[in-house]
Design goal:
Helix 2 (164-174) runs parallel beside helix 5 (262-281) and helix 3 crosses helix 4. This protein has 3 domains: 19-93, Molybdopterin biosynthesis moeA protein, domain 3, CATH 2.170.190.11; 138-280, 3-Layer(aba) Sandwich (Molybdenum Cofactor Biosythetic Enzyme, Chain A); 291-359, Beta-clip (Beta Barrel). The chain is built from 6 helices and 26 strands. A hairpin with a 2-residue loop joins strand 18 and strand 19 (253-258). It is elongated, with a radius of gyration of 31 Å. The chain has 364 residues and is α/β, with parallel strands linked by helices. Strands 6-3-5-4-8-7 form a 6-stranded mixed sheet, with no helix packed on it. Helix content is 18%, strand content 30%. Bound molecules: adenosine monophosphate and magnesium ion. Magnesium ion binds at residues 144-145, 187, 210-211, 260.
C-alpha cells in the first residue's frame, strides 16, 4: 500500500467487556447486586449501573456507565434476580479500556507494506476501504539458449526443457510483480537484441536467463550494452553458484541476467534480484521472520567467495539441523530435494558443526 494507515478514532471506542459476566461497581465489594438489565451485542447499554446493581454483559459488550469491573459468570453466584461475586471485584477487571487497542492518530500500518491477510483485516477494522497502492511492475522473462525446447516436447540430443521461465515467473509473482512471458531468444546476437528491445518497450524490467557465462558466448551482456545506457553495471559476481550474473539497466529499466543453471537462477533471484523487484513494487522491507538452524557438520566455502549451499533441515526434537546436500549445484533436482540454502560469507568461509545459521527458503 502506498499510504500510511492511521487510526481515525480510539479502538475500542468505548470500554468493552473481555468476558461473559456481570458489569458491577468494584466499591460494592462482595455484597449482592440486583440485576437491572442486560447489555446486548451491537447496542448501547440500556442504562447505567448504580450502587448495589449489576448488568448482565457478554464478551465484547459495551460496559455501562457507572460499572468499573466485570465479574465473570463462572465467579458469580446468581439467584433470585441478584448476583453475588465469589470475591471482591478488582477495578478494571475484564474491561478493555477505550483506546487500549489503538489510539486516535496512531500509525498502525506503514506505507510500503504488502496487503496481506493481516493488513487487510486491520484496514477493514479501521474502515479504510479505498487503499492507494502501487501498480504491479510488468517484468518480461526471456530465456536464452539454442538448446532449449518447450516443456511439453521431448528433448532430442543436446536439448533440454526451458524450465527457468516458470520458476522465475513464480518468483516474480511472489514478490508482487507481474511476469510476462516473451519468446525464447536463440544464441544469436541480432535475435537476442531484437528480443530485448521488444521486451523493453512493453515492460518495466527484464529478466533473462542463460547466455551470460564469461567467454565467447557472453551474449546477454553484449546485447544489453549495444542497446543503450547505462547498460551493464555488473557482470560476474564472486558467488557460487551464480557467478555469471548480469546487473544492468536501459534508461530507468532494470535488466537482470540470471545464470542459466536453474538452481543458481533462483538463488540469485532471491538474493540479488528480489530486492530490486521489491523496490519496483513499492514494498519496503519484507516482514518475514528469519529461520535459523544448526549445522550438523562443518560447512566449508572458499575465502573471497560467497557460497550458497543447498541444504535440508531436519527436525530433531526442538533442534533444527542443517544437512548439506551431496550433489552438484547444476542438478536441477536440488530444487526439489533442498529445503533451502545457507550463505557462507566470503570473509568467514567455515561454519563449524553446531553453529546456528540462517536458512533461506527458495521462493514459492
Ligand atoms: P548458459 O548461461 O547459457 O551457459 O547456461 C548455463 C546452463 O544452464 C546450461 O547447462 C543451460 O543449458 C542451462 N539453462 C540455460 N537456460 C535454461 C533454461 N531456461 N532452463 C533450464 N536450463 C537452462
Ligand atoms: Mg546458453
Amino acid at each position: 500500500m502506498a499510504r500510511d494507515a492511521i487510526a481515525d478514532a480510539p479502538y475500542p471506542a468505548h470500554p468493552r467487556s473481555a468476558m461473559d459476566g456481570f458489569a458491577v461497581r468494584a466499591e460494592d465489594g462482595v455484597g449482592p447486586r440486583a440485576i437491572v438489565g442486560e447489555v446486548r451485542m451491537g447496542h448501547a447499554p440500556p442504562g447505567a449501573v448504580g450502587s448495589g446493581q449489576a448488568m448482565r454483559i457478554p464478551t465484547g459488550g459495551a460496559v455501562p456507565e457507572g460499572a468499573d469491573s466485570v465479574v465473570p459468570v463462572e465467579d458469580a453466584d446468581e439467584r433470585d434476580g441478584s448476583v453475588v461475586p465469589g470475591e471482591a471485584p478488582q477495578r478494571g477487571y475484564a474491561i478493555t479500556p477505550t483506546g487500549e487497542d489503538m489510539r486516535r492518530g496512531d500509525l498502525i500500518l506503514r506505507a510500503g507494506i504488502r496487503l496481506d491477510a493481516r493488513a487487510l483485516g486491520v484496514l477493514a477494522t479501521l474502515g479504510i476501504t479505498a487503499i492507494p497502492v502501487w501498480r504491479r511492475p510488468r517484468v518480461a522473462i526471456i530465456s536464452t539458449g539454442d538448446e532449449l525446447i518447450d516443456p511439453d516436447k521431448v528433448p532430442g540430443p543436446g536439448q533440454i526443457r526451458d524450465s527457468n521461465r516458470y520458476g522465475i515467473a513464480a518468483a516474480l509473482r511472489g514478490v508482487g510483480a507481474e511476469p510476462v512471458h516473451h519468446p525464447r531468444a536463440l544464441d544469436d546476437p541480432a535475435k537476442l537484441e531484437a528480443a530485448i528491445e521488444r521486451a523493453r518497450a512493453e515492460s518495466d524490467a527484464i529478466v533473462l536467463s542463460g547466455g551470460s557465462s564469461v567467454g565467447v558466448r557472453d551474449l546477454v551482456p553484449r546485447a544489453i550494452d549495444r542497446l543503450g545506457k547505462p547498460g551493464v553495471v555488473v557482470h560476474g559476481l564472486r558467488v557460487r553458484p551464480g557467478k555469471p550474473t548480469v546487473l544492468a539497466a536501459l534508461d530507468e529499466k532494470p535488466v537482470i541476467g540470471l545464470p542459466g543453471n536453474p538452481m543458481s537462477a533462483l538463488m540469485i533471484f532471491r538474493t540479488i534480484a528480489e530486492p530490486i523487484f521489491r523496490r519496483l513494487t513499492g514494498e519496503a522491507e519484507p516482514r518475514g521472520v528469519p529461520a535459523f538452524a544448526r549445522a550438523a557438520t562443518a560447512l566449508v566455502g572458499r575465502p573471497g567467495w560467497t557460497w550458497f549451499v543447498p541444504v535440508n533441515v531436519e527436525i530433531d526434537g526442538v533442534e533444527r539441523k542443517i544437512k548439506q546436500l551431496p550433489i552438484r549445484s547444476s542438478h536441477t533436482s536440488l530444487l526439489a530435494r533442498a529445503d533451502g540454502f545457507v550463505i557462507i560469507p566470503e570473509d568467514r568461509p567455515r561454519i563449524e558443526a553446531g553453529e546456528a545459521i540462517e536458512v533461506h527458503p527458495f521462493l514459492q
